[in-house]
Amino acid sequence: MTTNNHPAQGPVSLDRLHQISEILSKAAAQSDGGNLGYAMVDAVKVIDEVLTSMAREQISRGHTT
Fold it and tell me: How far apart are CA 7 and CA 57, in angstroms?
């Protein structure tokens, strides 16, 4: 039996969200536009907003790392 240890096979962690955002940012920068390019840019915005919101919540609760 083979196991797949790729991060996409497990839960989405904060580190993985940062990785996804970076990957999509780079791909969008290399894109020639179009719907896929715009969708990647929108996905990066959503991920960044989620990460920012989570960071603010941690700070307000006094749980900084």
Answer: 25
Q: Give the separation between CA 9 and CA 20, rounded to whole angstroms.
A: 14
DSSP 31: S
Nearest residue to 25 via CA among 39, 41, 3: 41
12-56 tens-digit pLDDT: 888 999 999 999 999 999 988 789 999 999 999 999 999 999 989
Residues contacting 43, CB < 8 A, separation 6+:
20, 24
pLDDT (0 to 100) of residue 24: 93
CA distance 42 to 12: 18
Alpha-carbon gap, residue 39 to 27, rounded angstroms: 11
